[in-house]
Amino acid sequence: MDALMQFIFSGLTVGAVYALVALGFTIIYNASDVVNFAQGEFVMLGGMITVFTFEAGLPLPLAALIAIFVTSAVGVALNKLAIEPARGAPVVSLIIITIGASIFIRGAAQIVFDKQLHRLPSFSGDEPIHMLGATILPQSLWVIGGALLVFVGLYLFFTRTLTGKAVLATANNRLAAQLVGINTGFMMTLSFALSAAIGALAGVLVTPITLVGYDIGVALALKGFAAAMLGGMGNPKGALAGGLLLGLFEALTAGYISSQYKEAVAFIVILAVLFVMPQGIFGEKKTERV
Amino acid sequence: MSILEVKGLGISFGGLRAVNDVSFAVKPGEIVSVIGPNGAGKTTLFNMISGVYMPGVGQVFLEGQDITARAPYLLARQGLTRTFQNLQIFQEMTVLENVIAGFHLTERGPIWADLLSWPSARKRAGEVRNGAYELLTRVRLEKAAEEEAGNLSYGALKRLEIARALAMSPKVLLLDEPAAGCNAVETEEIDALIAELAASGIAILLVEHDMKMVMRISNHIVVLDHGEKIAEGTPTEVSRNPDVIAAYLGSEEETAHADG
Known about the structure:
The structure holds two protein chains of two kinds. Chain A has a domain of 188 residues. Helices cover 73% and strands 2% of the residues of chain A. Chain A has eleven helices and two strands. In chain A, a hairpin with a 2-residue loop joins strand 1 and strand 2. Chain A starts with a helix and ends in a 14-residue tail after the last helix. In chain A, 52% of the residues are buried. Chain B is of the alpha/beta class. Chain B has a domain of 179 residues: P-loop containing nucleotide triphosphate hydrolases (Rossmann fold, 3-Layer(aba) Sandwich). Chain B contains eleven helices and ten strands. The longest helix of chain B has 20 residues. At the A-B interface, helix 5, helix 6 and helix 7 of A face helix 2 and helix 4 of B. Chain B: Keywords: ATP-binding, Nucleotide-binding, Transport.
């Protein structure tokens, strides 16, 4: 029982990170139908920039803010330099562009930073908290809390604010959105900035636990993608649920079967979702009208 | 004083002149129709006026201001909007939400009020909802308000697109085949609606294949053939113009050839 609780805690922690990555996928997918495989690099950049500015002597909160801000700028640049010039290209081409961008960002990070693994101090100490017969690190609570906060913020943004609804309208029908006076180009830029900022935040929160290196983005993008698919691509609720579930699956697999199979879980989830319910848990069945 | 003025507009696609040197003007409250055989360049002309295509040559003026090649979202903010022949509807929203989207420009308020759902934000949302309902009633879609737009019939979607355009209180409204695919009753309804809109002072530019409708409601008709303006005038003038008759029925020689 205690072991189970322990697995659940560690699953929720990793799951919260996957959820944040999946939320990043969701925003860009909603605005443009593009699955942005550079999403994992945003997490990496968030962690790396924080580490380097922190080691340069800046206080941690300021370092984190700078990291989030710079990563958003990278997100905007990705949209302006790589996605926007290819507007009108099929979605598959755009997705391949994002894969190229992710390789580029990884390579640049290797040169600008280094190839070492880095860590940050935990935000509020390393004293484990005893809870429900198991222990949890304070940093895990930061990660889970961060994911929940971002989710609630996004939910309110998309359902209540005009700008949020304008992003959804852009996703639904770009031309119609323009007809009602929405600057669809700006909405795309905003989506990339927002999505990059969320990725960077995930990087900041998780670095004290998992360490950060220039190449952590690939695995995160894959798992965030699996989470988004599981929850239903394009649905923020699905991203959150999918992320947490995937984290739990991984932790339980590692705990009860073997930690060697842990990495396979995301792949099994992707396959299972595609075979059994391609629309995911919260996704709606889509029918194209001709 | 005309509100919309088109001067020498033209565009080529890969060397093919789709539209060449077309000029005309529309006054507030006037219904101007653009007619012509298939492929005459009517929709291309619309696309240039509404900022979807960038014209190769020529200018478009809205209230005396040069708006040539301005992006559609900017034109919408300045009071020029349009509907599409092949419909541009937010399929996954409800009918009411589609019209609410049209109010997007006037609905703007402080973002914090929206996020926290303050009374002012809710009041604003309520007003917009009522306004959207009114417009739906005007196009007789109030009963379908809560339905998902994608489920509506073609004719109903045409009217929904008009309602959404009206939400922006446009000064100039471009209607691309509003009656296409509609049955006789629906056509008559759209007919009446357009006349009503014009009476309220909106300048209407219309592309339509239903000649009876065009002749009945237009104040002024512009005839295109092979991208060129071949005639313009009142419905009576245009219907008697030999060039127009030739364009629609084929020229004398061709007819003779067909007879022989």
